[in-house]
Amino acid sequence: xxxxxxxxxxxxxxxxxxxxxxxxxxxxxxxxxxxxxxxxxxxxxxxxxxxxxxxxxxxxxxxxxxxxxxxxxxxxxxxxxxxxxxxxxxxxxxxxxxxxxxxxxxxxxxxxxxxxxxxxxxxxxxxxxxxxxxxxxxxxxxxxxxxxxxxxxxxxxxxxxxxxxxxxxxxxxxxxxxxxxxxxxxxxxxxxxxxxxxxxxxxxxxxxxxxxxxxxxxxxxxxxxxxxxxxxxxxxxxxxxxxxxxxxxxxxxxxxxxxxxxxxxxxxxxxxxxxxxxxxxxxxxxxxxxxxxxxxxxxxxxxxxxxxxxxxxxxxxxxxxxxxxxxxxxxxxxxxxxxxxxxxxxxxxxxxxxxxxxxxxxxxxxxxxxxxxxxxxxxxxxxxxxxxxxxxxxxxxxxxxxxxxxxxx
Amino acid sequence: xxxxxxxxxxxxxxxxxxxxxxxxxxxxxxxxxxxxxxxxxxxxxxxxxxxxxxxxxxxxxxxxxxxxxxxxxxxxxxxxxxxxxxxxxxxxxxxxxxxxxxxxxxxxxxxxxxxxxxxxxxxxxxxxxxxxxxxxxxxxxxxxxxxxxxxxxxxxxxxxxxxxxxxxxxxxxxxxxxxxxxxxxxxxxxxxxxxxxxxxxxxxxxxxxxxxxxxxxxxxxxxxxxxxxxxxxxxxxxxxxxxxxxxxxxxxxxxxxxxxxxxxxxxxxxxxxxxxxxxxxxxxxxxxxxxxxxxxxxxxxxxxxxxxxxxxxxxxxxxxxxxxxxxxxxxxxxxxxxxxxxxxxxxxxxxxxxxxxxxxxxxxxxxxxxxxxxxxxxxxxxxxxxxxxxxxxxxxxxxxxxxxxxxxx
Lengths: 409, 409
Description:
- Chain A is of the alpha/beta class.
- Chain A is built from 13 helices and 13 strands.
- The first copy, chain A, has helices at 5-13, 44-61, 73-86, 99-113, 128-141, 162-168, 191-200, 220-223, 250-253, 292-308, 310-332, 359-368, 392-408; strands at 32-33, 93-96, 119-123, 144-148, 173-179, 204-208, 227-230, 244-248, 338-339, 351-355, 371-372, 374-376, 380-384.
- In chain A, the strands form 3 sheets. In chain A, strands 2-8-7-6-5-3-4 form a 7-stranded mixed beta sheet, with helices on both faces. A 4-stranded antiparallel beta sheet of chain A has the order 9-10-13-12, with helices on one face.
- In chain A, strand 6 (204-208), helix 8 (220-223) and strand 7 form a beta-alpha-beta unit.
- The longest helix of chain A has 23 residues, at 310-332.
């Protein structure tokens, strides 16, 4: 454990990914940014790329730029995300819309592939959008919703295991939707094991990778995952509300029907024919005109992740959370804090969550002192540690200031 | 009619909106950009705003910027669009997602308000996304689709009249979806008259304003429109694939259920409660995390439209299309061209369409000579005239080069 700021700085000096921090726009404030899992920092390259996009491609190329590259961006950037982050071969991933819209499309498509089965499974305490959409899609398709207990439901469990999933699967289960890393506890689910469990019951799985993409190696193809979605503004550093991705396994593509068939999902976008004929690859998940500014920002963010490599990112993420857990145990637990994240790094992502009394007030005080975490109901402080940009010194400082705030209150 | 380039330049010199052109990034190439109805030009302010967004709000503010303005952008920019472009009071418009996704939501919501009625009406030759989505939503809700003949169906009609609509309305009609300005012919539909006609039959109307917003004064509130959607990358100059808008009349808001309930549509986004409670205003049409880069680009584009004012924009749009029609009649019709746009400026938007033999090859040759129009099936050349940026000289040059190309071939 780094028991002093100097020791934390020594860890930074020895960090093989330290050089990546210089490729981001980082100022003096805040002194410790521990929310890279809500919004990653801006890559330097993104601003240059946006300027080029506006001045050259938009201003100069005008409408002609659609036929010299823009129209290919959803699949091109999707393939980059697939290859660099998701373990997905080309043609199965597009970047478009929001995670919510993509999850909606994936859930509808998955349920459509399991017609006749009447149940959709969702975790009781999964991220709100995921729960709301699971209920909405179930209602729209005449399915019933079965809730998995936990994670983070106050019952002491931090995540959903393959056994938990197996316990609710029946011959009626059509689709299971789950988060790979829980947005509160940081629990890392067994993607391979749960996918296999779901398949043994004849159902399909939709994974939300928002909190794991970029910090945990993912092998969607190798694990036989059916559908996956996730956002790009966390560890992929694509900026606030940047477009999300959706993955459809190749074996499902020909049969997939998504519910929002817009012109960019058509086989020939500009044929504009009488009837909708979907594209043969993952472009069939597209709807409206692609958001070009957002797409190039995703491309720049993912390039940095690709350059660092998932193995190194995972190793640093584990080292960062390990330090955070040790300091929490040493400093915060004695002051009434309760670690709500697994102590085993093999089953956690790149954030930790600490339950403390009056967490909202504590969060406000932390921010006032230059330490930026996230508050999450009920009474939890979440510390996100982004391996491309977060330093060990920031972790040390963040926990040190949290200790000071809790000691005072 | 301006029979020489000099006369066209005199019209530009007398144009009260001429100064606005300087507020856009415009280079030497192309010599005539006649596709501002597919992609408007970039405002100078947009690049400055994007730089500020990345360097100050994203890099400096980081996650804190969500609580100092970003979270309000969909409604704030929506209200600006509503006040400046749509004739809509505050609280009824949000900017988010794509036109396709918004149309999908609006059609579902409208059909939900007319439960028990079994028919959805769409124009046979409306924009592809509109037709595809009408069919998809009808299928998802168990409705049948009734097609309105035309516009642009080759039968000589250029648009849909109130009488055309009245002829297909029955007690079973739930929803009618129509484009205000037809994407091919430029025909300007009677929004007020058709809305009243639809309402007399007890049905609801969803207007697609993509080709009229910013060039035709629109009064959604005064006309009693139910729902409207449209894109921002045409005459609103927000950039390629920028987020779209959706309007819901205040009287419907409390009862509206949209099909993609994500966390940003919730009354309290960060409560993250067990059940979805929708926002009381148009934010209930939102789903995922708002696309901030796109939203600020919409704001900058719409500010210019607001500064010019819809009355002046409409007057200039009419003068531009009037010149284009006159030159077409004088030069292009004798060479085998056929004007497919109404000659009465009161029933057309800001683009004209000319049918010529081998229009795709002619379009390619025009682009090679520095004149950029749009090709549209079947064999049509579309000339979009954006009053903030298109000059009379560009119109003259564009038609002059078209005359030369047709004379040669």
